[in-house]
Inverse folding.
C-alpha cells in the first residue's frame, strides 16, 4: 500500500469520533496525518482528543495545523485576558469541564505544548492544508494569519492558489455533513460537534471516513461519489470564534 496523506477536519473535543476514525484508518509509520485545527471547545472531551493526538504522533507522521479556537486559547495563556469571555462563550466552557479545571492556565503542560507546536499551514507535492482559507496570489509563507484561521470559504470560493495545488481546509462548517468540494478547494469541517460527522480524507485516493460525536461510523461513499453541496451550505452566521 502506498504511503497515505490523510486530512482530518475540525475535531472540537469529540474524542469518540476521533477514536473511531483512527481505528478505522489504522495509520502507521508510512502515513502522514494532517489535522486541520480546532481540537478543542464545544465538544465534550478536549482532554481526551489531545491525549489521542499525542499518542498518534508516535504511530505516524502527524502534522497538526493551528485553528482559530486553538489560537484564542494560546492568546489567553500569553496574557491576552480580553479574549477569555469570547472563548468561554464559544466553547471554552466545555474545554474547562473536560479537564475539570477552573482556568485554562491549569491545562497540562503537554497539551499546551502540543498546541504551541501547531503549524500555520502544510504543503505536499499536490496539496496544501490550512485551517480556514487563503489569499490566492500570496505564497503560503506570506498568508495573513487572520485569513489562515478566521476567513470562511464563501460562494464563490477563493480562486485557485498560485501554486495550482489543491487546498484542503476546515473551519467553514458544513451543517449538511458533506464535504464541500469545489475541485481546487475541499472543505472537510462537517459539523461533528452538532449533528454531523468528523471527516477524514485520503487526499490522494479520495477515500473518506466519517464518524459522529458518539463514535458511530458512517458508511463511506466511493471515491468521487460525493455530491457537491448547494451554495448556501458554505455559509453560516459568524461569531467572533466561529466556525
Amino acid at each position: 500500500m502506498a504511503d497515505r496523506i490523510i486530512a482530518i477536519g475540525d475535531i472540537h473535543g469529540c474524542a469518540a469520533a476521533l477514536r473511531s476514525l483512527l481505528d478505522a484508518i489504522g495509520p502507521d509509520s508510512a502515513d502522514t496525518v494532517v489535522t486541520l485545527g480546532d481540537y478543542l471547545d464545544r465538544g465534550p472531551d478536549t482532554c481526551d482528543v489531545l491525549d489521542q493526538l499525542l499518542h498518534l504522533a508516535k504511530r505516524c507522521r502527524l502534522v497538526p495545523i493551528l485553528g482559530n479556537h486553538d489560537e484564542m486559547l494560546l492568546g489567553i495563556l500569553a496574557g491576552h485576558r480580553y479574549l477569555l469571555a469570547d472563548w468561554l462563550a464559544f466553547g471554552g466552557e466545555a474545554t474547562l469541564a473536560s479537564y475539570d479545571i477552573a482556568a485554562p492556565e491549569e491545562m497540562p503542560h503537554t497539551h499546551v505544548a502540543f498546541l504551541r507546536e501547531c503549524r500555520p499551514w502544510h504543503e505536499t507535492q499536490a496539496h496544501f492544508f490550512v485551517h480556514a482559507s487563503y489569499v490566492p496570489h500570496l505564497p503560503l509563507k506570506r498568508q495573513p494569519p487572520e485569513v489562515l484561521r478566521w476567513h470562511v470559504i464563501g460562494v464563490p470560493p477563493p480562486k485557485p492558489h498560485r501554486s495550482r495545488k489543491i487546498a484542503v481546509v476546515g473551519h467553514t462548517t458544513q451543517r449538511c455533513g458533506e464535504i464541500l468540494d469545489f475541485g481546487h478547494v475541499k472543505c472537510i469541517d462537517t459539523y461533528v460537534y452538532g449533528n454531523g460527522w468528523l471527516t477524514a480524507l485520503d487526499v490522494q485516493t479520495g477515500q473518506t471516513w466519517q464518524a459522529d460525536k458518539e463514535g458511530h461510523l458512517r458508511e463511506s461513499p466511493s471515491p468521487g461519489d460525493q455530491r457537491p453541496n448547494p451554495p448556501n451550505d458554505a455559509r453560516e452566521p459568524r461569531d467572533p470564534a466561529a466556525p
Summary: Residues 13 and 28 are 23 Å apart (CA to CA). Confidence is low (pLDDT under 50) at residues 222-241.
